[in-house]
Specification:
Layout lengths: L3 E4 L1 H15 L4 H22 L22 E9 L2 E8 L2 E6 L2 E2 L2 H12 L3 H13 L3 H15 L14 E4 H11 L1
Antiparallel strand pairs: 1-6, 2-3, 3-4, 4-5
């Protein structure tokens, strides 16, 4: 089986974020939702850069979103891949909040299966090995930089929005070997 697959960046970042969050101690279901939230925030930042969304300084009086339905208690901040993910307690456990809604881990799992297809287990194994190659504190500090080293290459302009690139699993495994 080839060591590469064609895929866009969002599912790769979602999976990497989930794996890092789990390595940092979050339950798998929570980690999946946090990975999705990080990918969404990163896409939004790119959208601002491309002029698709208004920058934050153009909307200074925008009120914070209300607490989503199903969230009980306080909302805490989780630092992940250079982003702050809001996480609220639900009846099913802690879940990330994205765009004012609780992220459903089942939806993230379906999304990843749909995007990676039969290569999900291979990609997950390579990324998990990379995450385990570093102590948690070091992983937390360098996780986004690691992602930048293996993410699929796509054009930096608008044509690259959602474009597929090549994810090289051998490169991820080499990063893990180098980190040991």
């Amino acid at each position: 089986m080839p060591d590469t697959l064609r895929i866009n960046r969002a599912p790769v970042l979602t999976l990497w974020g989930a794996i890092v969050a789990e390595r940092l101690g979050l339950p798998r279901e929570t980690a999946l939702t946090c990975g999705q939230a990080v990918a969404g925030m990163t896409a939004h930042v790119k959208g601002v850069r491309l002029g698709l969304y208004a920058p934050p300084e153009d909307r200074p009086h925008e009120p914070p979103p209300p607490k989503p339905g199903g969230v009980s208690g306080a909302i805490r901040d989780v630092h992940l891949l250079g982003r702050i993910v809001h996480v609220g307690e639900t009846k099913d456990g802690p879940r990330a909040i994205s765009k004012g809604e609780v992220v459903k881990h089942e939806a993230v799992e379906r999304y990843l299966r749909g995007k990676f297809g039969d290569r999900l287990a291979d990609a997950q194994a390579a990324m998990t090995d990379l995450a385990k190659s570093l102590p948690p504190k070091e992983l937390a500090a360098h996780a986004f930089h690691l992602y930048e080293q293996f993410r699929p290459e796509v054009p930096p302009d608008e044509r690259g929005w959602g474009a597929k690139g090549v994810l090289d699993l051998a490169r991820i495994r080499a990063l893990a070997r180098d980190a040991r």
